[in-house]
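Need residues for this backbone.
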């Protein structure tokens, strides 16, 4: 269990690093829903292992070793999500919680075989890139649906939010990866979009929803 907790910290540090190279103890505590003293104790341990650099009154910085470790954990998580969806036929709204447990399995051969069975997928069920065995991955330069001009057609490529509630919302709207969406109107008051896709015509999506959907032009 202690090892699992440490890996959750490393993964959280990596995600926070994607937003800013400087990470505060408060941000880390909020991300993991723990107190600052609790987070600080783990940071001390991670510093001893060369995962982070932490100095008093200074932001936390994740090291190259820390990034590599995080990428390995993220690879296991995203491969697990894809396996659960593609092979075991779970819904994309179901896979995250199960993958949270599977990502802590230590046997690399398990994930290598999983990767091979699926034909070496490049993304997880929500469109996020899967790191390779060396921790490398490409981050596509997709746009938010809210940034797309009127009378343009785009394809849903990824999501900025993979929470269960949001995925269930998309299920209800019949929106998934690969769905082609055409922007019909943009409301000047609040930025909400009127869109059409598949058999759905003139559906209104709020700015909050459109900010969470990443797309590429057709």
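Answer:
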């Amino acid at each position: 269990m202690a090892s699992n907790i440490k890996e959750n910290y490393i993964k959280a540090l990596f995600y926070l690093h994607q937003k800013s190279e400087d990470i505060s103890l408060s941000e880390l505590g909020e991300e993991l829903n723990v107190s600052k003293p609790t987070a600080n104790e783990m940071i001390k341990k991670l510093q001893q292992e060369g995962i982070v650099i932490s100095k008093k009154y200074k932001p936390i910085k994740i090291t190259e070793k820390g990034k590599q470790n995080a990428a390995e954990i993220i690879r296991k998580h995203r491969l697990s999500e894809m396996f659960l969806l593609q092979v075991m036929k779970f819904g994309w709204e179901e896979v995250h919680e199960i993958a949270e447990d599977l990502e802590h399995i230590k046997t690399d051969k398990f994930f290598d075989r999983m990767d091979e069975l699926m034909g070496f997928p490049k993304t997880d069920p929500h469109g996020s890139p899967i790191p390779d065995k060396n921790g490398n991955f490409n981050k596509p330069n997709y746009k938010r649906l809210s940034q797309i001009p009127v009378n343009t057609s785009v394809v849903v490529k990824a999501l900025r939010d993979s929470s269960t509630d949001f995925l269930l919302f998309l299920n209800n709207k019949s929106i998934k990866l690969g769905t082609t969406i055409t922007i019909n109107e943009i409301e000047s008051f609040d930025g909400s979009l009127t869109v059409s896709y598949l058999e759905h015509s003139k559906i209104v999506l709020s700015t909050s929803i459109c900010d969470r959907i990443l797309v590429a032009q057709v």
